[in-house]
């Protein structure tokens, strides 16, 4: 295939990678556009890093092809691919200053000195480390070291930057701050980022699109909103955010719950009556004590309340072993005047379109 500016920056075509008996990546098809912030999300061992390593060229697929900017890279070694990787361990050159760490790549590529100085200066400006240009890596905080690693990769102006859990070593607060910064940096440079993480919140915060993987298989690929609001299956619903997955059976344009009640729900034509399903409703979509017309409603007993500051989380039992989690913003309520103490009987309502029926 010839190179084309319209081609996706990265294309994976039926990629398979096996390690002995284990299929780490199973017939993966992905197309990642120029300038996209694309995340690969899934639990440990689902094949995210292996996929990244195949794009970088550190692993070869057993089947299928990897294409960069429209060209097969089957015979292109890692150092000839227009790709850079940032790892969780920053792997900075300890004996070089911040400036020399960032200048390392362009120097090796024999970029002329005036251009090199401009590029390194711009990158340090971008990651807000210009005042630290002469510092040595050991004199920097974890977040600053990670920013040097980022600048060192971006200064080469790769077509794709691969990031493998780059914030994994940082504490939560710094991690959250770096998520916002990373997204801003990506927007500024316009380079395609492929970001590997097992942290769903991180993926939702930063990504244009997310690929959710499990056991080497792509489960769903879409925008954060699509993945969260319209999960393709119970795995995705359970992995992204908190989900209430009520088991039931399709019946009469609704779902018969284990309580015997049939609740209305939108059922795809491909799911016939009698199919065992999960009715999936997000906790924040549930309205406690709601009796409005048009809402689906069920009755239950509050068995636990957890005060979360901005919201209160309620665990409501519909029947023994059948529980819903509801989250209510603390707009009016506070812990002291909590209107729904444990043991309270409560009606829970939701809009029918907020109940998603997923095959179990
Ligand atoms: P994590 O988040 O823990 O890094 P991951 O989703 O990135 O997980 P991979 O590192 O891609 O997962 O691994 C996928 C599977 O392939 C795992 O079961 C892993 O043990 C296996 N695997 C990865 N690399 C090798 C290897 N070089 N030899 C044998 N098995 C491997």
Structural write-up:
The chain is an alpha+beta fold and 360 residues long. 23% of the residues lie in helices and 34% in strands. Strand 4 (63-68) and strand 5 form a beta hairpin. The longest helix is centred in the middle third of the chain and has 18 residues, at 172-189. It is globular and about 75 Å long. Adenosine-5'-triphosphate (ATP) binds next to strand 2 and helix 1.
Strand and helix layout:
Elements: E1 10-19, E2 22-32, E3 37-41, H1 48-56, E4 63-68, E5 71-72, E6 83-86, H2 98-108, H3 113-126, H4 142-154, E7 160-164, H5 172-189, E8 192-197, H6 200-206, E9 209-214, E10 217-222, H7 224-229, H8 234-239, E11 244-251, E12 254-257, E13 262-264, E14 276-281, E15 287-288, E16 296-307, E17 311-319, E18 322-329, E19 345-350, E20 356-359
Parallel strand pairs: 3-8, 3-9, 6-7, 7-8
Antiparallel strand pairs: 1-2, 1-4, 4-5, 9-10, 11-12, 11-14, 12-13, 14-20, 15-19, 16-17, 16-19, 17-18
Helix pairs in contact: 2-3, 2-4, 3-4
Report mean pLDDT, rounded to a whole number: 92
User: For the largest beta sheet, what order do the strands appear in spatially?
Assistant: 6-7-8-3-9-10
Structural class: alpha+beta
Task: Note the overall shape.
Answer: globular
Give every kind of bound small molecule, once each. Answer: adenosine-5'-triphosphate
**Fraction in helix:** 10-25%
Determine the strand fraction and express it as a percent band.
Answer: 25-35%
Rounded to the nearest angstrom, the distance between the terminal CA atoms is: 41 Å
Q: What's the helix count?
A: 8
Report the sheet with the most strands, covering strand number, pairing sense and barrel closure.
Answer: 6 strands, mixed
Low-confidence stretches: none
What's the Cα radius of gyration? 25 Å
